[in-house]
Design brief:
Largest sheet: 5 strands, parallel
Helix content: 10-25%
Number of helices: 7
Strand content: 5-15%
Shape: globular
Radius of gyration: 18 Å
Length: about 260
């Protein structure tokens, strides 16, 4: 089961605001139980329904890492060095604890790439190199690779280079570097890409577990989706639907309600 956030003494809803900064790393303790590894299979049911409903999609999906793509803090719960499992679905640290993605994540990444969506990471972890190392170790298998057939694709390879921003700091800085690094119209990357930063931000959906990072929405215009228990296909659907609502795009069910 995923590591509980309480093991890091995060603010609770009854005592402290969720937008308060986290405690220093020195005050954190490692839990006794590691998270469970994900499975290598990619059932069709893990594809977000908004990816196949024929309505417009945002060009770019950005994800936080800790408690968004995987159920732990990479800078707190992992004791390096990491060792990948031969299946590529998880890795173990020097204490034998196991680390992997949330269950729906492989299906989301695979199906997003199949539809030509750009994928990125915005993480404020204090151990960026360790986070990148784990992303290189974890492997995503497609639906034709059920039962471990085929090598799959490294998780890091699903994300575009300029869209991978992993370092401590305000998330606004992460998104700013994405644009400065050449994030432009799809298929037209590079510093000469067309479109201002504001318009490019508006074509992004960002999934994160911390409410304080909503400032990328209020100040930059990025569509923000707060996730509490890791990214699921339902969370992706809700994020995409919110992006559509902001653009005046109504789904079939919404049009039916208004008739």
């Amino acid at each position: 089961m995923p590591i509980s956030k309480k093991s890091r003494q995060t603010p609770s809803s009854t005592t402290t605001s969720p937008i308060d900064p986290p405690p220093s790393l020195s005050s954190l303790t490692k839990p006794s139980k590691p998270p469970q590894p994900t499975t290598p299979s990619l059932p069709p049911s893990l594809t977000p329904t908004t990816f196949t409903d024929t309505l417009p999609l945002p060009t770019t999906l950005i994800f936080d890492l800790d408690y968004t793509l995987w159920p732990f803090w990479i800078d707190t719960h992992v004791s390096p060095p990491l060792k990948p499992h031969k299946s590529g679905t998880h890795a173990t640290d020097r204490t034998g604890d196991t680390f992997a993605f949330y269950r729906d994540v492989p299906g989301i990444l695979w199906s997003a790439r199949e539809r030509g969506l750009r994928l990125g990471v915005a993480s404020r972890t204090h151990t960026p190199e360790l986070a990148r190392e784990l992303l290189k170790m974890l492997v995503v298998h497609g639906p034709e690779q059920q039962g471990g057939k085929g090598k799959g694709v490294r998780a890091l390879d699903f994300f575009e280079g300029v869209l991978v921003q992993i370092y401590p700091g305000d998330k606004r800085g992460h998104f700013g570097r994405m644009v400065e690094g050449g994030l432009g119209e799809k298929g037209k990357g590079g510093k000469g890409a067309k479109g201002g930063g504001e318009e490019r931000f508006k074509d992004m959906v960002f999934f994160d577990d911390e409410a304080r990072n909503r400032n990328v929405e209020t100040e930059l215009g990025v569509c923000f989706r707060l996730v509490r228990d890791g990214v699921t296909k339902e969370e992706v659907d809700e994020g995409v639907r919110e992006w559509r609502r902001r653009r005046g795009i109504r789904g079939v069910e919404e049009r039916g309600e208004l008739e």
